[in-house]
């Protein structure tokens, strides 16, 4: 079997086997970027467009480099160390640091998965004549069947196609007929208001675009791709050449650009319709879809629903499987979608558990928006801590060898850490008052 270079190697040429693997893996960044535009995020972006209008469009291009930084850093860590994120933390750092980070990630993933399941059901409920909550269990069952019965390669390929459902928002925005000169101006000239409503939405956008589940998912995708090439041990997976890292950077840039284009057109579609009509109170993606129908036509509303449901089938398993990876790696269990359920009972049991908890969020009387706020507060503290640790790990020669971060990546990662920390503290302040 062809082996990659070790972390300390100066080899700049990727082995042929690795290049072939990356050819098949092209689109990992697309999956991660699409998962970032989950139904809860769609609700946030739609609410921002409805309340603020075009002046908040600049947030999409502004957050793109930060998204790239967090996703690429985790991808790089896994490519060089051969380990998933929480496996690396368990291996290189003490338990007192590992467990709080794990707790924060699990709370955020579970609550957001539940909110997304509810969002998908609510979107479908626009066209179905019964309580949409009862759609949550069958939706969850279909998602579980894909995760448990499908192979990793099949799941990855399904996710790639589901990502394309988000292009529906481009169509929805075009059907809304925005004022394009004004749109261009709002995109390139940032508008900042110091009122509570504007600051709250800016913080919410930053929080949802830098969600911690992206870190874990991207790192574990990298490991799964290695296993698909027959590299089943950490030692076989260790190391990455400059060419491999360059390929990963390109793929992740493509994914983050895609994600931000989608964010942009979600904001634009509601800014051009709901905000212009004075309909500024939108609590969810389903509310936005329902409100768009009389203003932009049934086609626009249907496209909005298509995007919510399509990306939900991608985002929910990213969250529940990501949580299962995190716990299994913390406990030292086998954790791979390449393994059959009987070969990794604990891992698949965790996927079922977190999916069931997500379903339960919709039936236990919790207000989904309140639950998301609580999860956001928890994530506002754990996500910056996790990012800081990732920066430390990717600058450690013990872990990365010669593949430590360069100055530019450290500056971008540091800026992202400052912004995410500021957003978390601001969210806590707004929540307390």
From TrEMBL:
Source organism of this protein record: Rhizorhabdus histidinilytica
Domain of life: Bacteria
Pfam families on file: Nramp
Keyword line: Membrane, Symport, Transmembrane, Transmembrane helix, Transport
Annotated region (Disordered), positions in chain: 1-20
GO cellular component, one term: plasma membrane
Name the UniProt record assigns to this protein: Mn2+ and Fe2+ transporters of the NRAMP family
Gene Ontology BP annotations: iron ion transmembrane transport
Transmembrane segments: 56-75, 96-128, 134-154, 161-178, 198-215, 252-274, 302-325, 346-366, 372-395, 407-432
């Amino acid at each position: 079997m062809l082996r990659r270079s070790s972390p300390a190697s100066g080899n700049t040429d990727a082995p042929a086997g690795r290049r072939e693997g990356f050819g098949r893996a092209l689109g990992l960044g697309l999956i991660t970027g699409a998962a970032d535009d989950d139904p809860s995020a769609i609700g946030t972006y739609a609410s921002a467009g409805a309340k603020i209008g075009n002046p908040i469009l600049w947030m999409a291009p502004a957050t793109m480099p930060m998204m790239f930084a967090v996703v690429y850093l985790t991808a790089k860590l896994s490519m060089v160390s051969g380990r998933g994120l929480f496996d690396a933390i368990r291996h290189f750092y003490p338990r007192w640091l590992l467990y709080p980070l794990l707790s924060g990630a699990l709370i955020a993933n579970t609550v957001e998965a539940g909110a997304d399941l509810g969002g998908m059901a609510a979107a479908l409920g626009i066209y179905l004549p019964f309580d949409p909550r009862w759609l949550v269990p069958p939706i969850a069952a279909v998602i579980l069947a894909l995760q448990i019965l499908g192979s990793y390669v099949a799941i990855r390929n399904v996710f790639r196609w589901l990502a394309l459902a988000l292009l529906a928002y481009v169509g929805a925005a075009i059907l809304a007929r925005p004022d394009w000169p004004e749109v261009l101006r709002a995109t390139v000239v940032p508008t900042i208001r110091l009122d509570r409503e504007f600051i709250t939405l800016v913080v919410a956008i930053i929080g949802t675009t830098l969600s911690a589940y992206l870190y874990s998912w991207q790192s574990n995708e990298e490991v799964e791709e290695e296993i698909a090439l027959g590299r089943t041990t950490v030692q076989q997976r260790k190391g990455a050449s400059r060419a491999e890292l360059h390929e990963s950077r390109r793929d992740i840039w493509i994914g983050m650009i895609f994600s931000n284009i989608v964010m942009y057109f979600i904001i634009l579609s509601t800014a051009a319709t709901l905000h212009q009509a004075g309909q500024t109170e939108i609590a969810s993606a389903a509310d936005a879809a329902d409100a768009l129908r009389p203003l932009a036509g049934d086609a626009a509303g249907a496209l909005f629903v298509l995007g919510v449901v399509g990306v939900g089938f991608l985002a929910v398993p990213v969250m529940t499987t990501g949580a299962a990876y995190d716990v299994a790696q913390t406990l030292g269990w086998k954790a791979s979608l390449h393994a059959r359920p009987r070969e990794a009972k604990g891992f698949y049991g965790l996927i079922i558990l977190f999916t069931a908890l997500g379903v339960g969020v919709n039936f236990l009387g919790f207000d989904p928006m309140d639950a998301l706020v609580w999860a956001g507060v928890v994530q506002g503290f754990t996500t910056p801590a996790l990012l800081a640790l990732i920066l430390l790990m990717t600058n450690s020669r013990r872990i990365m060898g010669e593949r430590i971060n360069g100055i530019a990546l450290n500056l971008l990662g540091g800026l992202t850490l400052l912004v995410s920390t500021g957003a978390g503290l601001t969210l806590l302040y707004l929540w307390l008052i």
